[in-house]
Amino acid sequence: MTETLSEGTLRKFRAARQAGDGLMLIELLSGQPLTEVLQLVGDSVADAVVGRVPGAAELAEQCIATLAARGWEGDEDLAEQLEAALGRGPVPLLRPLRVELDELSGLLEGDPAFGGGRIDLVTGECWPRQVDFDEGEDDEDPNRWLPVWCEGSRDGYRDMELFISTVGDTDFADRLEIAIAGRGAFGRFKAVLARCEDEQRRFYLFAEERQRGRARAWLAGRGYHAAARP
Description:
Elements: H1 7-19, H2 22-29, H3 38-50, H4 56-70, H5 75-86, E1 95-97, H6 101-108, E2 117-120, E3 126-128, E4 145-148, H7 154-164, H8 170-179, H9 185-193, H10 197-221, E5 224-226
Parallel strand pairs: 1-5
Antiparallel strand pairs: 2-3, 2-4
């Protein structure tokens, strides 16, 4: 089983990020296993480097090396952002957008019948397709809205396949492999996964990390990068 951050450390990290406490962020993350949470913590590390927080540059170097070794979608974009923060590479020509990658991934992935929506280019808020706007508001204005089309569940299925390959218990991995065959794969997979709390938690971290990376790559392809909300 791959080692990852404890639930307690993740809670403290989110609180420190919300408070904008760069010193606490670096103290929490230094020396920790970050391989499965790089997309979650990378923006905060980059901000800490720019803010000259002690230890941030060393942590950024660690993140860049791990991103290069991992090579998931969106990892190269994040590595370039960290390189630029360190002053070692060109600043990516991407406009900042105060969007949460978790929110964006919710629009991008899932059932095409219900997914998709738009991003408010002023506030960075993600709006599902089903939300009604005020009468008279131009929801097609390209200077205000960035449309998001749902890309379906194919990537989510691939996440399950890749996760199964990381499960050390051969019998449990076999049961998960059987679960994802045919229709209803997602429901069966989650039912089997629920029998092992540790693997269940690890899968959700794994899937969320890959979703954030895909959302980051999607933004970069449209000329934006995720910026912290004030």
